[in-house]
Amino acid sequence: SSVSVSRVGGGGGGRAGGGGGFGSRSLYGLGGSKRISVGGGGGYALGSGFGMGAGGFGGRGGPGFPVCPPGGIHEVTVNQSLLAPLKLDIDPEIQKVRTQEREQIKTLNNKFASFIDKVRFLEQQNKVLETKWSLLQEQGHTVTRKSLEPLFESYISTLRRQLDSLVGERGRLDSELRSMQDMVEDFKNK
User: Looking at the 3D structure of the chain, how many domains does it have?
Assistant: First the structure.
């Protein structure tokens, strides 16, 4: 960083003595602009006077003074091996396995979502059929209850079997998904 110091001062006085003065110091290049002002004055005068002066120096150095350390500037050595780029070789097999795992997880998630949709659809169909059944019973149609009941029970049992199958498949897919996620975690930890 660059450091510059400047001082501006002035003062005056008269025949009987006394006087006053002011000063300003600025430090630039120490992480922004830092300004230190120092001032003071007093006394008495029968006459008046005015003076002005300026001077300064600048250079490179640290936050302390003097700008150049005792004994001069020392030579800087650079370790060239630290400047060489790091060789971070990634095993292409691991990348391939991770890509395959991601694809398998995506496929399993899609299957799982479709099974959930099927279960919801079957549950809705079941509710619709139950509603229709209760309406038919309330209206007292000429069709006898005994002739419709076996049909509905057969259809409901078929829907329940499908639902049980889907729930079983869902459990299997859940465990397979957890297994894949554990494998992914193992590869991440390696």
Answer: 2
